[in-house]
Write a structure and sequence with these properties.
Keywords: Membrane, Metal-binding, Signal, Transferase, Transmembrane, Transmembrane helix, Ubl conjugation pathway, Zinc, Zinc-finger. GO terms for molecular function: ubiquitin protein ligase activity; zinc ion binding. It is found in: Endomembrane system. This protein is of the alpha+beta class and about 850 residues long. It has three domains: about 325 residues, no CATH class; about 230 residues, no CATH class; about 110 residues, no CATH class. The chain has 21 helices and 15 strands. Strands 1, 2, 3, 4, 5, 6, 7, 8, 9 and 10 form a ten-stranded antiparallel sheet that branches. It has a three-stranded antiparallel sheet with strand order 11-12-13, with no helix packed on it. It has a two-stranded antiparallel ribbon with strand order 14-15. Helix 1 crosses helix 5, helix 8 packs antiparallel against helix 17 and helix 16 runs parallel beside helix 18. It is elongated. Bound molecules: 2-acetamido-2-deoxy-beta-D-glucopyranose (6 copies) and zinc ion (2 copies). One 2-acetamido-2-deoxy-beta-D-glucopyranose binds next to helix 5.
Length: about 850
């Protein structure tokens, strides 16, 4: 690399790092500058929270009664009539002047009750839900569920122009309140994901008498949920939000709401419940827990200025620059597990049997003691989401409106089962990575010499190391917040670390071996620019030099990377008996020799490898950044991007195929390595691309996965073909640089050109033999010429100089046509002919060439395989 270019690259690298650092530091410093104002704002907000809590404390059931729209008249003029203006709360969003679409509250309650009554089938004609009786339900609804939703628009159109935010929330400076609000669901249907986390303690309370039905069963806990709504048909966006609320475990009812500057949802939540019993219990619970939260916030107001119960998942900037979004209220009913799922065959299980079984399962999940509870069925819920300001309903798809075969509301796993699954798969992944390390180790044991190392494609090895490095980084990042998945993540991190470091050292060695190659190519290019008019004149002196050194035997065995002697200074001897073409090919293939004079100190090599590593780290940072930000992209774009990433990743054998072809090398890596790595690296992908209920709830894409599999298979087939029929089979000769063909077709009529290897030349051509066989004193070969019974080729025999066993080679007779058949290719695989026209067993010479790139007989340099 020219120093100038290198400097430019380094300064570019530095610039990118600088930007990254700025990006990391900047938001913090901004926060620090504003924290005084922000803490004032936070104090202001907490004051408002206290007065809202006061309202919650002092109101009674029925205090919030927005007018019910009449079916006959115009919906909009209900409040102009006397006596029907309803009653309102002094809470933001619940006031009349806020203009929310509360007329549909009754409809929302009705839909919720419908869901609940349908979920619990009546026993002997008697409705069980809402009576406070013991129901066969999960008591802890913590878990993850997902399913489809359908949108029902409200009767009145609501747009951003229906509200005057500077009127209803004068304290805030709103941004973007005059465009379509965020979280505005515009599509007709889509998917939603709910992550529910319940408080582990249940608060008991005294239930109201029967006339206040439906009853809530006497216990309540607070829950929070992360709701993700995929609006793939409308705005093509994913909206993610946090909701807070209460869960009545006995009846399986969950009521959640968003809270923001323009909607004090959590304080008004009890007024949205189905009945007085629910109201009283939630008012009591919220009175305690909300006060507790506000007090804590007040104590920490200089550290933590985030709004309490904020519906934003993570956005500190929201505190200072709020933008309006649609508010949501969610009513969910936990469904009883079906008797089949519980493994109960009795069609009419008696009394509390089912409830007892479920209780046993839950306590086993809570504190595993090995009780025989069988398989834990999944968590099922039905839900209705109501947006009081944007005016629409989202209902989960399922019975009774849709047949159970089509959709079953929200289904998923309880938290403990989900965690168990995550842990298991993390361990399986770690095992896969360990097996990768094992394969890598055995490959390292195989290619530990420079000549074998030179065959391995640097890019192929890089792809593996980059992905392992990203796995390691992901695991290391996750491990700090992994909680109960800590140990499996640690194991995965360790495995990925091993894979990354061993792969990295392999990469470093490959780089060390192959670096002279690229430099020489550059040098050659530079030479080519100055005087490439005749390639023969460039290479000939060099070939002569080789010949000279080979004759005197002065060239000591040395690794390819070692420094070479400078250009020849002695007389140039062009041997008359050499095949000039073969010499040129030899010189072209033996490139490591050529640039020897410009050898740089080893230090430069280390620096370049470091800069490569630096570039790889930046690359993986960039990819990780894209992958993380892709969660907010349009689903189609995201899945296309992820498929593309997988495709590029699993094209990892392509560089190896290219390198094999360019260097005319049949096989660089062990078969176990190629097949094993392919399988192991596609397995984690298979989990997400094929398995329906994977723990990330990623949508499977089987077609893309099949394509990727086929592509990987094709690469392996090409690698196999390169091994069997030759690396340049079917590749036009002019696409590839010339390289020495170690398995040439041996033709008798090539004799004049000196084509047949030494020792195979028949005795009846003494002139030729004596001139070529200059160094025959090295080996005592005795030729036996045998005719192969009138075929178009004869077989001749010679002793292999390495193992001293007989080597039989087919020789095409003069004038015969040597078709390049596959069987011929197989036969030619048995022997190897060196540029110095010595012939050996393939196995013998390959084993030799692992250690020396020198002819065992005449010590001439051999082009690498
Ligand atoms: C309202 O607050 C007072 C004082 O904190 C408390 O005694 C009372 O029980 C609360 N009322 C309700 C309905 O929770
Ligand atoms: C509503 O509450 C605010 C304080 O949050 C208070 O200033 C206002 O007077 C109250 N309005 C009514 C009608 O009670
Ligand atoms: C929500 O989207 C609909 C359809 O695009 C639009 O008519 C309505 O005004 C939007 N509502 C808000 C509050 O932005
Ligand atoms: C919104 O409310 C503010 C304050 O009450 C008022 O000045 C403004 O005119 C209102 N804007 C509209 C469009 O009604
Ligand atoms: C869980 O519930 C208890 C009792 O109701 C309450 O004191 C505690 O703050 C709650 N924890 C959380 C995280 O909400
Ligand atoms: C599950 O519910 C039981 C009783 O309702 C409670 O004791 C336990 O702590 C809960 N566990 C979790 C993780 O919420
Ligand atoms: Zn041999
Ligand atoms: Zn030789």
């Amino acid at each position: 690399m020219p120093p100038q270019q290198q400097q430019q690259q380094q300064s570019a690298l530095g610039f990118v790092l600088f930007i990254l650092m700025l990006w990391v530091i900047f938001p913090d410093s901004e926060n620090a500058a504003q924290s005084l104002i922000v803490s004032d704002l936070a104090a202001e907000r907490l004051k408002r929270c206290w007065s809202a809590l006061d309202v919650l404390n002092q109101t009674r059931w029925g205090d919030f009664a927005p007018p019910v729209p009449r079916d006959d008249g115009d919906d909009n003029d209900y409040d102009d009539e006397d006596g029907d203006s309803g009653s309102w709360l002094n809470l933001t969003g619940f006031r009349r002047e806020d203009g929310f679409e509360w007329n549909d509250l009754e409809r929302f309650r009705e839909k919720g009750l419908q869901l609940s009554r349908y979920a619990i089938p009546p026993v002997q004609g008697q409705q069980l839900w809402g009576t406070g009786a013991r129901l066969p339900l999960w008591a802890n609804a913590s878990g993850t569920v997902h399913g489809e939703w359908v949108k029902t628009p409200g009767p009145v159109h609501r747009g951003y122009d229906s509200y005057n935010l500077s009127n209803s929330v004068p304290e805030m400076h709103w941004i973007g309140d005059k465009v379509d609000w965020a979280r505005n669901i515009t599509g007709g249907s889509g998917k939603m994901y709910v992550l529910l986390e319940g408080n582990s303690t249940v608060t008991e309370y005294e239930q109201l008498p029967d006339e206040h039905a439906p009853l809530a069963g006497g216990s309540i806990r607070n829950v929070k949920a992360t709701l993700q709504i995929e609006d793939s048909k409308g705005s093509h966006l994913n909206w993610e939000m946090r909701l807070w609320g209460a869960h009545w475990p006995r009846e399986g009812v969950i009521l959640l709401t968003t809270t923001s500057e323009k909607f004090e949802g959590i304080f008004g939540l009890p007024h949205l419940t189905p009945s007085a019993d629910y109201f009283q219990s939630s008012q009591m619970l919220l009175n305690q827990t909300l006060a507790h939260t506000i007090v804590t916030k007040q104590e920490n107001r200089y550290m933590d200025q985030n709004a309490p119960w904020s519906s934003e998942i993570e956005s500190p900037s929201y505190t200072t620059h709020p933008y309006p979004h649609c508010e949501f209220v969610m009513y969910a009913q936990v469904q009883p597990p079906s008797p089949q799922d519980l493994g109960i065959t009795d069609p009419e299980p008696q009394g509390d049997a089912v409830a007892n079984l479920i209780g046993a399962m839950e306590s086993e999940l809570q504190t595993p003691q090995g009780a025989p509870v069988g398989r834990i069925p999944g968590l099922q819920m039905s839900a209705v989401v109501y947006s009081p300001d944007c005016g629409f309903f989202l209902e989960t798809k399922g019975p009774p409106d849709y047949p159970p075969g089509e959709a079953r509301h929200l289904s998923g796993l309880k938290k403990e089962v989900h965690l168990h699954q995550v842990k298991t798969w993390l361990l399986v992944f770690a095992l896969v990575v360990f097996l990768q390390v094992f394969l890598l180790k055995s490959q390292l044991a195989e290619s530990y010499t420079p000549s074998t190392m030179a065959r391995v494609s640097f890019t192929t090895a890089s792809i593996m190391v980059i992905v392992d490095g990203m796995t390691f980084t992901a695991a290391a990042t996750w491990v700090s917040s992994a909680a109960s998945t800590f140990l499996p993540t640690l194991v995965l991190m360790f495995a990925a670390f091993l894979s990354m470091t061993i792969g990295g050292s392999f990469l470093a060695k490959i780089h060390e071996v192959q670096m002279p190659e690229t430099r020489d190519r550059r040098d050659r290019n530079r030479q080519g620019n100055t005087g490439a008019n005749d390639a023969t004149t460039n290479t000939q002196p060099h070939a002569a030099e080789l010949e000279q050194q080979g004759d005197t035997g002065s060239l000591l065995p040395a690794p390819v990377t070692a420094a070479r002697p400078g250009p020849p200074s002695g007389p140039i001897i062009i041997p008359s008996d050499q095949d000039i073409d073969a010499e040129i090919a030899d010189a072209a293939a033996a490139v490591p020799l050529q640039g020897g004079a410009q050898q740089r100190p080893a230090q430069t090599a280390a620096q370049t490898f470091q800069s490569i590593v630096g570039r790889y780290i930046l690359l993986s940072l960039g990819i990780s950044f894209l992958v993380i930000s892709s969660t907010t992209w349009y689903p189609n774009v995201r899945s296309g991007f992820l498929n593309l990433c997988a495709f590029v990743y699993l094209s990892l054998w392509v560089p190896q195929i290219y390198r094999n072809t360019m260097r005319n090398c049949r096989r660089a890596l062990r078969w176990q390595f190629v097949v094993g790595q392919s399988v192991l690296r596609i397995l984690p992908l298979a989990y997400f691309w094929v398995k329906e209920d994977n723990f990330l709830y990623a949508i499977p894409e089987r077609r893309a996965f099949l394509l990727i599999c086929a592509w990987l298979w094709l690469q392996i087939v090409v690698l196999a073909a390169q091994d069997i029929v030759g690396p340049r089979f079917g590749v036009p000769a002019r696409w590839t640089p010339e390289a020495w063909d170690y398995h040439p077709v041996l033709r008798e009529d090539n004799l004049e050109a000196g084509g047949l290897p030494i020792g195979l030349v028949a005795e009846d051509q003494p002139g030729l033999r004596s001139s070529t066989d200059g160094d025959s004193h090295h080996h005592h070969h005795h030729e036996r010429k045998r005719s192969a019974g009138g075929g178009h080729s004869t077989t001749r025999a010679i002793d292999c100089a390495i193992c001293r066993e007989l080597l039989e080679v087919p020789v095409v007779k003069a004038g015969e046509d040597a078709t390049a058949s596959v069987t011929g290719a197989f036969a030619r695989r048995m022997y190897m002919v060196t540029p110095c026209r010595h012939i050996f067993h393939t196995a013998c010479l390959e084993a030799w060439m692992r250690f020396r790139l020198q002819c065992p007989i005449c010590r001439e340099e051999l082009p690498p395989l």
